[in-house]
Amino acid sequence: MSRSSAAGSSLAKIGANDGAHGPLLLRLARWGWLVPGLFLIGVVVLGVWAWPSPDADNWLLMVPLLAAALCSVRVTALFSCAVLLVNRLVPVALSTPSPRLNGLLLDLCVGILAVLVAVLRSRTRAYMTHLQNALLTARQVVVRPIPLGWGGVESSTAYLPADTESRMSGDFYDILTTPHGTRLVLGDVQGKGLAALSTAGAVVGAFREAGYHEADLAVLAARLDDSLRRHNTLMAANDSGHEPRFVTAVVIAFLEDGTHADVINFGHEGPLVFGREGMRQLPQERNPPLGLIELTGTRTRIDRVRLEREETVLLVTDGVTEARNKQGDFFPLSAWADQLARTSADGTPPPPHVLLNRLVKALTAHTSGHLDDDATLLAVRRPTTSRSVTD
Question: Closest Cα to residue 63, out of 45, 27, 38?
């Protein structure tokens, strides 16, 4: 097993589960207690010792409310009790008359209200976490993890969700070992949401079956298009307002001669190939997107391309090519890839995991970590040494 394959697997997990750009309150949840804690200390220091004020107890009521928004139920209850105690001690420190009963009742009401808010927030967060995990599990059924060296190729994948809460995307990919050689697919369903994920499942399921059994790639293309058409028909029968979806995709079949591959491009961005002679782009948009082939009546075009064993192929969805920076400029994928190929040491093509690692960093820097659409990346190459893996 190659070192590049192992590193590629870890990158896939980072791409799918990285929470670095999640909601601020979730990222700072562990240190949320610092905000009400520092506020409590600040009010006591300023309102009691530095500039004594009889209104300091009113400012302290902010503490349990801040805790309710940032802390757990237990911590919120502790801050509520702390404020109740401090407000009883403030008159002693300031040598003022003891607080009246309505002040005590106000402290109790605010503390109880804060705890109730913390309980509701905690339950809502638990529900959202459960929902997110369920959606992620559903996605993994469609886009199953690719084991190291699967299909007899070195591969690395990354998934960068634009919506960190739901991760409902129509992006998909898969790699198969078949009696006809290694085959892979990467595609993007029109739209987002559960309907897009369901559509992706229909296409991927057809690829896993037809891709394994069918020797003729033209038949494979027809099976994919037919599966999507039947899926759209079923969805329309269940929902009269459903609009048929189309899918852009690329299918690559590695030939056994070790130097060529057959490519079918269904209206998708052309894959990039990194070799010793630099970077080049494979044919793109040769065929209509899946779901539109029958309507156009065109014959599926299959391109045979030269693909050396050491060359790395990069496939991406439009979440990469259409990623914008703050100025609205698209990510210059071709220019970035050409520059990377020019600066590669000794002209050696980067292995899959290195290629995706650099691309993810460049994409994150370009967008400041905020994608407008989900981005799925797949890099693959034939191993430098032969390896047999059974599907």
Answer: 38
Task: Please state whether 95 falls in left (phi above 0), alpha (psi between -120 and 50) or beta.
Answer: left
| CA contacts within 13 A on the Cβ side of 303 | 19
For residue 332, report the phi and psi dihedrals to the nearest 5 degrees. -80, 75
Element holding 184 (H helix, E strand):
strand 181-189
Q: Is the dihedral of CA 195, 197, 198, 203 positive or negative?
A: positive
Q: From CA 117, how far away is CA 77, in angstroms rounded?
A: 11
pLDDT bin (cut points 50, 70, 90) of residue 345 is: low
Q: Spell out the residues 6+ positions from residue 74 whose beta carbon is closer than 8 angstroms to its own.
A: none
CB neighbours of residue 98 within 10 Å? 9
Task: Tell me the chain's radius of gyration from C-alpha atoms.
Answer: 28
Q: Is 293 exposed, middle or buried, given 0-12, 13-18 or 19+ CB atoms closer than 10 A?
A: buried
The SS3 call for residue 238 is helix
The pLDDT tens digits for 139-149 are 787 888 888 88
- Looking at the chain, the whole-number percentage of residues with pLDDT higher than 70 is 83
Model confidence pLDDT, tens digit, residues 293-324: 877 777 899 999 999 888 999 999 999 999 99
Q: Band of the pLDDT at 383, cuts 50, 70, 90?
A: confident
Backbone angles phi, psi at 329, to 5 degrees: -85, 140
Scanning the chain, the segments in alpha helix (DSSP H) are 3-17, 24-27, 34-44, 56-60, 62-70, 73-94, 101-142, 194-213, 217-238, 293-296, 318-321, 333-343, 352-367
- At residue 191, what is the residue type? G
Measure the CA–CA gap between 371 and 376, rounded to whole angstroms: 12
